[in-house]
Amino acid sequence: MRAFQVVEFASPIVPRDIPDPQPRASDVLVEVASCGLCHTDVHLQQGYISLGGDRKLPVSMTGLHTPATLGHEIFGHIMAFGPSSGLTAADVGRPVIVYPWIGCGHCAACLADRDNECPMPQSLGWQRPGGHGERVLVRDAKFLIDAEGLNSDAGIYACCGLTGYAALNKIVRRDGPIGIIGVGGVGLMALSIAKAMSLGPIVAMDIDAAKLMLARQSYGAELSFDTRSGNVGEQIQQATGGLIGVVDFVGAQQTVDLAVSVLRTGGTYVNVGLFGGALQTPLAILAQRQLVLRGSYVGTPAELRELVALARGGRLRAIPIQNEPMDSINEGLTRLRAGKVTGRIVHTHRQVTATQG
Questions:
Q1: What is the pLDDT of residues 118-134, one digit of tens each?
Q2: How many domains would you assign to the chain?
Q3: How far from 135 is each of 31, 33, 130, 318, 333, CA to CA, in Å?
Q4: What is the mean predicted confidence (pLDDT) over 145-172?
Q5: 121 and 25: one domain?
């Protein structure tokens, strides 16, 4: 099969011919039709995650080694399976969304179906080959979400959607305005989900005027603010009286400082972004304002199933999708790195034919 791989960090991804994976035991082989492009792929391709300042976490320390096949927003069809998978010939060809945040399978988190909390992750597109290959091996059928009736862009629910849904779920209170910092692909999806969950009013924050206009005019954000403004915190406080929750999809120093400054007493800050910010809040202030500070990393398999059910109910407004061939992945990464993508890029593989194994 053909796989687009990181052969050397910070260098272009290379198409390579590699052997087809073979399913054993409970494995399921999925033929990948499409795979969304995530900003995490940018970090992994460059070889490190910023920890703020000059500090960097090499991705090799997280279990990613070259050659690596990235891609975790996978939509495909069941192609083959191992003898203990619980599947039958009738399942071959069935469309699925792949839950990629697979854990070790043995720790307390995994046994409680909270694979995204596993300390020894085996995530597809990270520690294990992902959807930038034409076929992907999934350890267990329980990580496959039925996608009958959904289009091939639905793989974005596995990260772009799940990340927003799980982060919103972590906001403790629901009795006031909620802020979303960064209304790119994930933030725009979170806005769509927030509206489907009847949360709000929603305050959108970004540095891109076009994205803010889209959030307000097409996705229902009641208010929007350009975070480059010198007194944006004061503007938000004046307009809302403070926010009960902020989800930060950027995670830079400026965004965390802004988020904490506009929270009401008892408010919740949820960080998702990986842009290298550092949280510095006096403990006396933390106690006095009774703030809740949370990190959020994708979500659980159950949350993905809940999100897909929400999508099936027709309650989610689709975000803009740019469908492009997998051959253009390097160009897509360049645009994503430069912040020139509204919504999501979804790369499609060349036509392949599923067969039973």
A1: 999 999 999 999 999 99
A2: 2
A3: 5, 9, 8, 26, 21
A4: 96
A5: yes
pTM for the full predicted model: 0.93
> Helical H runs in 49-131?
108-111
Query: Does residue 35 belong to any structural domain of this protein?
Result: yes
Distance CA 116, CA 245 (A): 23
Closest by Cα among 187, 206, 75 to 131: 75
Range of the domain at 149: 2-159+318-348
**Do 109 and 103 form a contact (C-beta atoms < 8 A)?**
yes
Q: For the chain, give me the number of helices (H) and strands (E)?
A: 10, 17
How far apart are the C-alpha atoms of 321 and 324, rounded to whole Å?
Answer: 9
- The secondary structure element, H or E, covering residue 81 is strand 73-81
Tell me, yes or no, whether 220 and 322 share the same domain.
no
Instruction: Say if residue 131 is in the same domain as residue 272.
Output: no
Examine the domain organization and report whether 71 and 84 are in the same domain: yes
- Residue 355 reports pLDDT greater than 70: no
Distance CA 13, CA 17 (A): 13
Cα–Cα separations (whole angstroms), residue 324 to 14, 55, 327: 17, 34, 8
- Token pair recorded at residue 53: 């300042």
Question: Rounded to an integer, what is the distance from CA 10 to the centroid of its chain?
Answer: 21
What the block records as the tokens of 298 is: 């994708």
- 211 shares a domain with 95: no
d(CA 95, CA 113): 23
| Contact call for residues 73 and 348 (beta carbons, < 8 A) | no
- The conformation of residue 259, written as its DSSP 8-state character, comes to H
**Torsions phi, psi of 157, nearest 5?**
-65, -25
Alpha-carbon dihedral angle through residues 323, 324, 329, 333, given to the nearest 10 degrees: -50
Residue type, 330: N
